[in-house]
Structure formats: structure tokens, C-alpha cells
From TrEMBL, chain A:
<feature type="domain" description="Globin">
    <location>
        <begin position="3"/>
        <end position="147"/>
    </location>
</feature>
<dbReference type="GO" id="GO:0020037">
    <property type="term" value="F:heme binding"/>
</dbReference>
<dbReference type="InterPro" id="IPR009050">
    <property type="entry name" value="Globin-like_sf"/>
</dbReference>
<keyword id="KW-0479">Metal-binding</keyword>
<dbReference type="GO" id="GO:0019825">
    <property type="term" value="F:oxygen binding"/>
</dbReference>
<dbReference type="InterPro" id="IPR002337">
    <property type="entry name" value="Hemoglobin_b"/>
</dbReference>
<dbReference type="GO" id="GO:0004601">
    <property type="term" value="F:peroxidase activity"/>
</dbReference>
<dbReference type="Pfam" id="PF00042">
    <property type="entry name" value="Globin"/>
</dbReference>
<dbReference type="GO" id="GO:0005833">
    <property type="term" value="C:hemoglobin complex"/>
</dbReference>
UniProtKB/TrEMBL annotation, chain B:
<keyword id="KW-0561">Oxygen transport</keyword>
<dbReference type="InterPro" id="IPR000971">
    <property type="entry name" value="Globin"/>
</dbReference>
<dbReference type="GO" id="GO:0042744">
    <property type="term" value="P:hydrogen peroxide catabolic process"/>
</dbReference>
<dbReference type="GO" id="GO:0072562">
    <property type="term" value="C:blood microparticle"/>
</dbReference>
<dbReference type="GO" id="GO:0046872">
    <property type="term" value="F:metal ion binding"/>
</dbReference>
<dbReference type="GO" id="GO:0031838">
    <property type="term" value="C:haptoglobin-hemoglobin complex"/>
</dbReference>
<dbReference type="InterPro" id="IPR009050">
    <property type="entry name" value="Globin-like_sf"/>
</dbReference>
<dbReference type="InterPro" id="IPR012292">
    <property type="entry name" value="Globin/Proto"/>
</dbReference>
<dbReference type="InterPro" id="IPR002338">
    <property type="entry name" value="Hemoglobin_a-typ"/>
</dbReference>
């Protein structure tokens, strides 16, 4: 079981209550597709991903960004058992979507950067550490059912 | 692979960071120490608390070295030769740590530049910092 300090719990709840989810999800996913272009391999059906402008304005990317963020909200609501909460999602990513789990970290890093840009100086080093710990647990839970 | 446009973007951004090198460097280091406590082991001889003079001067050194490399990216191996030797034979910092500092530099830039830290800028700088780290580690073995 993951041990969360009061500061970490409060920080995660605070971040997710502050960020504009309809902006952050799409921004993080499109940033991932731009900064790490090989991640586009999983989105062949999304149409035009030819350059940064196309990716940023692609409606399927935006829609999927929101899906990813709602997935994260599930973890925020179940911080004491993310592993179990994500069991089915992990199976989905492994068996159906065949996503290389190394990619989860790439998206997590992009999400960190997007949140940092939104929060500015409020994204202090302790806030960053808490957020990254949360994302590390999320990533590890998503990897769990791979075999 | 960096395009001409990306090299120019990188040069411009690091030029803007040069006057605030101390703040940027110290911020990135503090973030690294908070998120990756193992990195503190390389600094047992310094005071790395927030606001410390050691932290500022060390942060400044790092940011200015990166800015110097950014001026002519095609010459990285030449520009970094002395630092390559220093890191390989004296400091011997495990190169996986370069990735950690690079990530924290990106976060610092995101906080500092907000919307201005566009996906294009992010991609360019991430690539540049990877190349920088790779050159820095070249003499290790």
C-alpha cells in the first residue's frame, strides 16, 4: 500500500481541483505526441498528426485527452488503492491496446510540464514531488497487469 | 535531430535565461533534490538548502554551461571537452542523473515561461538537453 502524507494528499486534491481538465488533458496528450512523435503509433486512426499545429487542433486528440484525464480522476478519488482501481485499465492497455508501458512515463512527464505551465510559481518543488509520486503510482498500477 | 529553426529557438531561449541563470539553475536543482532524493548524494560537501549561496552559484554554473553549448550546437563536443573530462574523471556522476536534471530544467522553464513554453520549444529543448547529456558522458568509458 502506498503511504501518502497529509501534504501529498492535499496537494493532489488541490491540483486536480484547480486545473482546467478540458484544457490540461488535451494539452498533455498533444504535447506527448509532439515531443515524443513515436507515441503517434497508437493513434493511427486519429487522422492528421503531421505537425504540431495539426496535432494541437486535432479533435480526436482533444477528445482522447479528456478521456485520459478522467481516467486520472479515478485515481485521485481512490488514492488508497490505485492498483486495484486500475486493474481493468491495465489489462486494457496490455491486452487490447498493446501499449508499451514505457510510454506511460512520457505522458506523465508531459502532464507534469503542462500543469507546471498552468500553475507557474505555485508548482513548487514539493508540489512537483508530490505530483510526480502520484503519477509514478499511476504508471506502476497501469503496468501491473502486463505479462 | 535538430532543425535549423529548432537550433535558433534553443539559442534564443537560453540567451534569455542567461541573465537569470542563478534563479533558473537553483530552482531546477531544488526540484531535482525534492523529487529524486538520491541526487543529493553528489552534494554532501555543499549546503543545498533553499536560498543557499552554494545552490545559486552551482545552479548558475550549470545554466551558463548549457547556454554556452546552445550558442553553437554543432560544436558541442568541442565546447564541452573540458566538462567531459571533469565529469568522467572527477565528478563521475551517474549519467542517468542527467535525465533527471534535464526533466527538472524543463519543469522550471514551464513555470517560468508559462504558455510561452510551447510544445515546439519543449521538444527542441528536450532534444538539445539529451544531446548535451550524451556528449557530457562521452568520456566516461
Amino acid at each position: 500500500m502506498v503511504e501518502w502524507t497529509d501534504f501529498e494528499r492535499a496537494t493532489i486534491q488541490d491540483i486536480f481541483s484547480r486545473i482546467d481538465k478540458d484544457v490540461v488533458g488535451p494539452a498533455a496528450l498533444s504535447r506527448c505526441l509532439i515531443v515524443y512523435p513515436w507515441t503517434q503509433r497508437y493513434f493511427g486512426s486519429f487522422g492528421n498528426l503531421y505537425n504540431a499545429a495539426a496535432i494541437t487542433s486535432n479533435p480526436k486528440v482533444a477528445a482522447h485527452g479528456k478521456v485520459v484525464l478522467s481516467g486520472l480522476e479515478l485515481a485521485v478519488k481512490n488514492m488508497d488503492d490505485i492498483k486495484q482501481t486500475y486493474a481493468d485499465l491495465s489489462v486494457l492497455h496490455s491486452e487490447k491496446l498493446h501499449v508499451d508501458p514505457d510510454n506511460f512515463k512520457l505522458l506523465a512527464d508531459c502532464l507534469t510540464i503542462v500543469v507546471a505551465a498552468q500553475m507557474g510559481p505555485g508548482f513548487t518543488c514539493d508540489v512537483q514531488a508530490a505530483f510526480q509520486k502520484f503519477l509514478a503510482v499511476v504508471v506502476s498500477s497501469l503496468r501491473r497487469q502486463y505479462h | 535531430m535538430l532543425s535549423k529553426k529548432e537550433k535558433q529557438l534553443i539559442r534564443e531561449i537560453w540567451e534569455r535565461l542567461t541573465p537569470v541563470a542563478e534563479d533558473i539553475g537553483a530552482d531546477a536543482l531544488l526540484r531535482m533534490f525534492a523529487s529524486y532524493p538520491g541526487t543529493k548524494t553528489y552534494f554532501s560537501h555543499l549546503d543545498i538548502g533553499p536560498g543557499s549561496a552554494h545552490l545559486s552559484s552551482h545552479g548558475k554554473k550549470i545554466v551558463l554551461a548549457i547556454a554556452e553549448g546552445a550558442k553553437d550546437i554543432s560544436q558541442l563536443t568541442v565546447t564541452l571537452a573540458p566538462l567531459q573530462t571533469l565529469h568522467a574523471y572527477q565528478l563521475r556522476i551517474d549519467p542517468t542523473n542527467f535525465k533527471l536534471l534535464s526533466h527538472c530544467l524543463l519543469v522550471t522553464l514551464a513555470c517560468f515561461m508559462g504558455e510561452g513554453f510551447t510544445p515546439e520549444a519543449h521538444a527542441a529543448i528536450d532534444k538539445f538537453l539529451s544531446a548535451f547529456a550524451a556528449v557530457l558522458a562521452e568520456k566516461y568509458r
